[in-house]
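To whoever is on call:

I kicked off a structure prediction for a single chain this morning and the downstream step that reads the tokens threw a length-mismatch warning. I double-checked the sequence; it's 414 residues and nothing unusual in it as far as I can see. Pasting both halves so you can look.
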Amino acid sequence: MPFEDELGDALHRTGAVIRPADRPALVEGGLNRGRRKVALRRAAVTGGALALVVVGLAGTYATGVLGERGGGGKGSVASAGEVPHLAVEKTDGAVTAEEMIDALKALLPKGDVVHEGGRGSSKVEQSMPYAVVVFDDGKGEAQISLGLNTVEPDGDMADDYVTCPSEALVDHDSCTAETLADGSRFMLIKGFVYGRGEGAKQWRASMVTPQGVLVDASEYDSPVEKGGEITRSAPPLTAEQMKSLVTDASWQPLMEEFRAEARNPPAADARPGEPSGEDVTRTLTQLLPKGLEVTDEGGDAGYGFVVVDDGKGRSFVQINVQPGMSDLSSHFADASELPDGTRVLESQESDPDAKGGAGTVGWTVDTLRPDGFRVVIMAFNAPGQGKDASRERPALTMEQLRAVALDKKWLTLG
């Protein structure tokens, strides 16, 4: 299974992310089309989800490089209640599960490994190698996982792994990013699988080398990522230990073996015709009604967001711009149809990102043109994903959201 799918499924258990309290109406039909966007990956770390192509750190960063599938479409590597059944899966690649597990265990501080599992690389499935253990230092059992993958070192995907997310997208306690002496880029983020005060904490360390090898590790304050008992006040490894774990030279031989056998180049960051995050965010800002102050903004291929304030409180607004989405026609079966054949769905709902922000509502306008060009926009009455309401209703009305989504400026991007 390609890493994009494997890690997307896996990390999207989280967050990132991302995952991402997914919004079925927005994620349905493969909003990300096999791509793990930054928000999706980040969703993994915080356990939340970005409403559109994003799902939050817990969804994107949710599982690090591990997925709910232990590889090859098999069962969860460490689903709730399944810790004793972590498997060591045999594969046909250059890097074995045993090598990954032994390397991970050798780098852990004093304590006991009470369960272990992993998977090697595969030339057939082109999957990534990883290891996962349940570790006890005397203060409670905790899951620690680490995996390897290849990415385009200067691409958006690599940037997403080592760039701290906006707090509007991913709720987290802290995040640091730096460039190391050898040119590798590193990030450490302390977040949550589901959200603040709900479920496990997740601390994640990621490094991308100049050669395009990703080392990605996550640790939790529970022996399982989701649904398990919280066994300690914090994950076992300190920030310094997590950095040492992913940057240790002992990974170098395995990284080289894995990189050498990777047959295909990393997947493109954007789909054909998909606009850049910069273009999406700039256009969204241009189309906003007057009287709104933009306090935060960002984007990724096909995705953009802003946090706006009209003097009555901050409001999070996000948008996806996606060509080639004709296969979502069934999703628009009950939509209204404009004279040019564009179909439009509108909705208003509570807890729109399923992340439990108190009093939150989300208003969505989803449009699909006859040629499959889709624009879907959502506004919250909160300053970000999983945040409590900061105002009674979103800063944009349904009419204003509709006007933005249907504006012909989107057709000029890509």
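Update from on-call: the warning came from a stale cache, not from the record. Cleared it. Sanity check on the structure: The CA atoms of residues 80 and 224 lie 6 Å apart.
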